[in-house]
Design brief:
Helix content of chain B: 55-70%
Structural class of chain A: mainly alpha
Number of domains of chain A: 1
Number of helices of chain A: 10
Largest sheet of chain B: 2 strands, antiparallel
Strand content of chain A: under 5%
Radius of gyration of chain A: 20 Å
Shape of chain A: globular
Oligomer: heterodimer
Strand order of the largest sheet of chain A: 1-2
Number of domains of chain B: 2
Largest sheet of chain A: 2 strands, antiparallel
Chain lengths: 328, 456
């Protein structure tokens, strides 16, 4: 039974890693659209417009997978984070509404396409911050009272490693956004900012009690720094800004970091395995998850084949159509 | 209001709002697929334009529906963590399977809309629309499985759970075939398409009244297709409703007795229309002798005994009896819109065009509103009819609910959000459909501006 639990956790990590990697493209899009709308807005939208609907589906997949993996954990999480979760959901709906309205907004509307994209970007960045706060607090346990099922932001933000991880992650994604969305004017900055983020993150992690420094943690560090470095080398920049390459690299990195905390959460006070269902449901979920990975993987391959097979050109042809008619 | 009741109201409001989007997206997916197939088969330029425009509408509804659906999923475990904990151990597989359907729908729809012109073979592109239809329907089917399991729980040792609170004897696959699953599936799928079809009739009736030229022709074509869809599904909805009532007699007799307002079990029961229960009596009701028995046991011409509330002396476990009135709204409203669809289809069969009469078009608008009311009433009847249980005879809502007071302000904020988001989405979608733009585009010279409408 223990082996099945381990495998199921591994699959959950993979799902989270892929979800996080894909949603991080939206965090990066958020900062790019806010800061460089005029220069790089079109190329950011070229990637985000078709895929953002699928990102949300990965979120649902992850939530349901956690629910099946550790049903006993849900009441704790639900009651502890209820204000943040509900706020997250309101913002998540606003994100969906603002981007779809931006895409199809008509001429002479009371609200412009650019304003709607700004709303989308701001909301997406706040969503990213909420996600980080929840995950970092699950790791460090600061501000959380397990017995009272409550979460207080003041002790959380008073703990410097918490702030460090959030700031470091924000810098990493800002640096990588220059690579992912090919913002050439910031080529050099992509290295400096990503390295700064990595350093802040490494120092912050070093202070955590339940964090174990395994040698394989070098992998995410190397992979993360590799992206801006390759981007700055003339012969390899195409590889660095390849969307699938980024998603693969980020997924591997996140999965490895997640693994380094397992099974001790909330500052090492909770062994998460105590919440695993460990019943016949576990094996049923295991089988369905394998099917799911094959199914979603095939669909995504089909999607990217179509995307790279000319969708970007279709967008380019329609770029004069900036009044909200999108690609249709 | 207690926090438990706030949880109830909050969730009821959320899901009541969400299903409007579900109904629209399910039928719109079907409509887009039918229209594109007609465009391909008839090589019709106008149908092509309509299908593109409707696909755009579908993706907007899908985007808002995705957010709303995710909201519902999160609300479930935030508001009812005790319930979701049991679901996680016993019956999570339909939820998980629904994610398959969700992915199918999302990826196929995105490719369908954004990669439209990349397909050289038009039928290959059309197949994506079929995948969207399958995805939307499968989502509804899987979610309904959870609801059927809540009504008739299986897959674990219920007696042991009630005695000890420990979940044992878990069969994770049993949830796919609970006693009420297939009758409920049949009823939910058919009523959803029927309600959606009538909503489309309302939308396109409005566009037809307001439109001119090609826009009017396009609206008329969609009116006909929507009428055919709703007429077909309303008949099946009636049939499935009868089967569901028969299932309730066996599996949930208390709910049946409450919705029919039967004070006593009877072998020759009259149908009670309207009426309220007061001091042990039913006041102000109309009764039709023998009709209830006949509807409950149609195969034996009414021979059989329908259950009454007298079988359940513990009144604290009765559901609120206003569900009898919501049930009446469902049945009477369903019959009225069914008659409307019958009248219109009969007109077409007699080679007349009922939609040339303004009162029929106005009737189309009314039927859409009524269809939605009927659909919502049906869900209220089902859900309130299970109260006070969240899992029938296993777990009460009060045992499952999150009683943290911090829910209240955010819950109110979410309700306000829905009140703004749903009407705005419908307004935005209506603006986006805007067939009037067709009038500014070159007409199809082959038809001289005319259009091949189905049934012509």
């Amino acid at each position: 039974m223990y082996q099945v639990v381990e495998s199921e956790f591994f699959m959950n990590s993979v799902i989270f890693a892929v979800f996080f990697a894909i949603i991080s493209t939206e965090f990066m899009a958020g900062s790019a659209l806010l800061m460089h709308y005029r220069s790089y807005g079109k190329q950011v939208k070229r990637f985000i417009i078709p895929i953002w609907e699928i990102t949300g589906t990965f979120f649902v997949l992850y939530v349901v997978n956690v629910e099946a993996l550790a049903p006993g954990l849900l009441p704790v999480v639900a009651e502890t984070y209820i204000p943040l979760i509900l706020l997250f959901m309101i913002l998540y709906s606003t994100r969906n509404a603002s981007i779809i309205f931006a895409e199809f907004i008509w001429k002479n509307s009371f609200i412009s396409e650019k304003t709607l994209y700004r709303i989308y970007s701001t909301v997406t960045l706040i969503l990213g911050a909420i996600l980080l706060v929840i995950y970092v607090s699950i790791v460090t346990g600061k501000g959380i009272s397990i017995s009272a099922h409550s979460f207080n932001l003041i002790p959380f933000f008073s703990y410097l490693p918490d702030d460090g991880i959030i700031l470091g992650s924000a810098l990493i994604f800002l640096g990588l956004s220059y690579v992912f969305y090919d913002m050439e004017k910031n080529k050099r900055n992509s290295i400096y900012i990503t390295v700064a983020g990595l350093v802040i993150n490494a120092v912050s992690f070093a202070f955590l009690k339940n964090f174990v420094f395994y040698p394989y943690l070098a992998i995410p560090i190397v992979l993360t720094i590799l992206l801006p470095v390759l981007y700055n080398i003339r012969g390899t920049s195409l590889i660095a800004k390849n969307k699938i390459f980024y998603i693969s690299v980020m997924s591997i990195s996140v999965a490895i970091i997640e693994r380094s905390f397992f099974p001790n959460l909330f500052g090492g006070t909770v062994d998460v395995r105590a919440y695993f269902s460990g019943t016949a449901m576990q094996s049923a979920m295991f089988e369905l998850t394998i099917l799911m990975i094959i199914f979603v993987g095939s669909m995504m391959i089909f999607y990217f084949r179509m995307y790279f097979g000319g969708f970007r050109n279709t967008i380019r042809e329609n770029e004069h159509d900036t009044e909200g008619k999108g690609v249709l | 209001m207690s926090i438990v009741n706030f949880d109830r109201v909050f969730f009821a409001f959320s899901i009541g709002s969400h299903i409007i989007l579900v109904v629209i997206s399910m039928v719109l997916a079907l409509l887009v697929s039918i229209v594109e197939l007609l465009a391909i088969r008839r090589n019709d330029e106008l149908y092509e334009k309509i299908s593109r425009r409707l696909a755009k509408t579908l993706i907007i509804i899908f985007a808002i529906g995705t957010a709303s659906g995710t909201l519902i999923a999160v609300e479930l475990f935030a508001l009812f963590p005790g319930f979701m904990s049991v679901v996680g151990y016993v019956s999570i597989l339909p939820f998980y399977s629904e994610v398959f359907a969700f992915f199918l729908e999302a990826i196929a729809l995105v490719m369908y809309v954004y990669f439209w012109d990349r397909f050289k073979n038009r039928y290959s592109h059309w197949l994506l629309s079929v995948m969207v239809v399958v995805g939307t329907a499968a989502s509804a089917i899987f979610i309904t499985m959870i609801n059927a399991w809540m009504n008739t729980p299986v897959g674990f040792n219920i007696h042991a759970y009630l005695a000890t609170g420990v979940l044992t004897g878990i069969n994770p696959w049993a949830v796919f075939n609970a006693p009420s699953t297939w009758s409920e599936e049949f009823h939910v799928v058919t009523t959803t398409y029927a309600a959606g079809g009538f909503l489309m009739i309302a939308f396109f009736s409005y566009f037809y009244l307001k439109g001119k030229g090609v826009a009017r022709v396009a609206s008329k074509a969609l009116l006909k297709i929507s009428t055919a869809i709703s007429g077909f599904f309303i008949v099946l909805a009636g049939l499935s409703g009868t089967l569901t009532a028969s299932m309730l007699i066996v599996e949930q007799p208390l709910k049946y007795a409450a919705i029919e307002l039967n004070l006593h079990s009877s072998a020759n029961a009259a149908e009670t229309i309207g009426g309220i229960f007061s001091h042990g009596k039913i006041l102000d009701a109309i009764t039709i002798p023998h009709l209830q028995s006949l509807l409950a046991f149609p195969l034996t011409l009414g021979k059989g005994t329908v259950p009454g509330l007298n079988l359940f002396p513990n009144q604290s476990l009765w559901p609120p009896l206003f569900i009898h009135l919501t049930f009446d709204v469902m049945v009477l409203g369903g019959t009225l819109i069914g008659l409307f669809a019958f009248f219109v289809i009969l007109g077409y069969l007699l080679h007349k065009d009922p939609y040339t009469h303004r009162f029929v078009v106005a009737g189309g608008i009314i039927s859409g509103v009524l269809g939605l009311l009927v659909y919502e009433s049906g869900w209220v009847t089902d859900e309130v009819g299970r109260q006070p249980w969240i899992i029938y005879n296993v777990m009460k809502v009060s045992q499952a609910a999150n009683t943290s007071p911090s829910i209240v302000p955010l819950g109110i904020a979410m309700i306000i959000f829905y009140l703004v988001a749903i009407p705005f989405t419908i307004y935005y979608t209506a603006k986006t459909v805007n067939f009037r733009e067709f009038n500014d585009e070159p007409t199809d010279e082959k038809r001289g501006g005319e259009v091949n409408v189905p049934g012509r």
